[in-house]
Amino acid sequence: MPNRSYLFYELTNSICSKCLRKVEAKIILENDCVYMVKHCHEHGRERVLISTDIEYYKKCREFIKPSEMPYRFNTPIKYGCPYDCGICPDHEQHSCLTLIEVTDQCNLQCPICYAESSPQKKRWRSLEEIEFMLDSLVKNEHEVDIVQISGGEPTIHPQFFDILDLAKTKPIKHIMVNTNGLRIAQDRSFAKRLAEYLPGFELYLQFDSFEKEALKELRGVDLRETRRKAIEHLNEFNISTTLVVTLKKGLNDQEVGKIIEYGLSQKAVRGVTFQPIQAAGRLEDFDPATDRLTLSEVRQMIIDQSDVFNSEDIIPVPCHPDCLAMGYALKTNGKVTPLTGMIDPKVLLEGERNTIVFEQDEEIKDKIFKLFSLNHSPLSSSMSLKDLLCCLPKVSAPNISYDNVFRVIIMQFLDAYNFDIRSVKKSCVHIAHPDGKIIPFDTYNLFYRDDKVKRLEEIRAEMTGVNHERV
């Protein structure tokens, strides 16, 4: 009997990338890669690369733990995922990080922008609207892990510091500002004032490339001098900063290691987040067939291009292992020591938050414990390491602060091509809708942003019509 050229691994549901209707999808293993194969009755067959690393893909299935749920849900289950956002009772993860978009306006018009922001857009949310969104999130979470003030470009909001003051009055552990850095680079006094919000405050700074042409393709302008000046100001006031790299295959992916190395050399930088382009929003000069990057490809780039992290140091994040990977290291006395690979995965998955298990190598164990005993006087935070490492077990290390932490995160957002309903139910990065709903980032940009709601309503109407016919 003839055999298939692949192994059929599992079955899930997806959506057609053209009409966005729900379709059945097979996950297959072929030629050392993982593919999603789906078929739409109207638009035919699609085959999408999901992962270039079969063993890591399987490993993600092992990195699961009981879901952490919100204290309330915002919508009922009526049409089924992804048409009921959010958060509906069928979702499997609370909000680890929630974006509050305070404006649609931006001082750039990037050729790649999931929100399609631009100088031409004029919508500014009022403090009352923003407080309503924050309070809706607090009702869900009681104590919110991370709120990211976003846009558009939030730093140009005329009440920007009023927004930060408002957020500081809410039960939020950590506040981030998602920024392109222009205002920080141009106005030293603005950067100085940001330092007043430390600790528990961080900048999520766009930092895509060191190359002029790559920046012009992704952002429309050469931002090299802007980035240099912004980092200079952030270092001066030691404002905790994450460098955020939007990755496009063949454009800036060869700079992964160089950006990590640069981040490690900067006083204020606490880590780098790599985000492959999500096929949503404004997508100039982007071909999903050739320009997409998978999480596994980015993970391998970090391993191949970095002298710090190896394959054991970049692991799935248990709350959403398909789309999030992380690696932590400690920076002390000019040395960098990877931390993640020294932790027993069982500690992560069983929810044990008081134990850290190191490898049996005595030299490594001694080195880490010596790091924990070093005496530091951090300027930006008095918190101990046990309060800083997202998704890691707590450790007793009171002399190590956020200044000593360096993390690498891969954050892959699902789009209409790789959309996996099994996976999206675990999405933990959300966007607050102005009506009070808290919606997964992945589905927000496909169905719930601006004019995209029209297509969602059409699909819902089709589903309702089918139900009437059955009755």
How are the secondary structure elements laid out?
Elements lengths: L6 E9 L6 E9 L2 E8 L3 E8 L2 H9 L34 E5 L10 E2 L13 H15 L2 E7 L9 H9 L3 E8 L2 H5 L1 H7 L6 E6 L5 H8 L4 H13 L4 E7 L8 H9 L4 E8 L5 E2 L4 H4 L3 H11 L9 E2 L7 E9 L2 E4 L6 H5 L12 H11 L32 E7 L9 H4 L4 E4 L5 E3 H8 L3 H19 L1
Parallel strand pairs: 5-7, 5-17, 7-8, 8-9, 9-10, 10-11, 11-16
Antiparallel strand pairs: 1-2, 2-3, 3-4, 6-12, 13-14, 14-15, 14-16, 17-18
Helix pairs in contact: 2-3, 8-10, 14-15
What does this molecule look like?
The chain has a domain at 78-327 and 407-470: Aldolase class I (TIM Barrel, Alpha-Beta Barrel). With 471 residues, the protein is an alpha/beta fold. A hairpin with a 2-residue loop joins strand 2 and strand 3 (33-40). The longest helix has 19 residues, at 452-470. The strands form three sheets. Strands 5, 7, 8, 9, 10, 11, 13, 14, 15, 16, 17 and 18 form a twelve-stranded mixed beta sheet that branches. Strands 1-2-3-4 form a four-stranded antiparallel beta sheet. The protein contains 15 helices and 18 strands. The model is unreliable at 352-389, 391-397 and 467-471 (pLDDT under 50).
* Name of the CATH superfamily of one domain: Aldolase class I
Which parts are unreliable, with pLDDT below 50 for 5 consecutive residues or more? 352-389, 391-397, 467-471
CATH architecture of one domain: Alpha-Beta Barrel
Structural class: alpha/beta
CATH topology of one domain: TIM Barrel
Mean pLDDT, to the nearest integer, reads 87
Number of strands: 18
User: What is the level 1 CATH name of one domain?
Assistant: Alpha Beta
**How far apart are the termini?**
44 Å
Helix content: 25-40%
Largest sheet: 12 strands, mixed
How much of the sequence lies in strands comes to 15-25%
Shape: globular
Number of helices: 15
What's the alpha carbon Rg, rounded to whole Å?
Answer: 22 Å
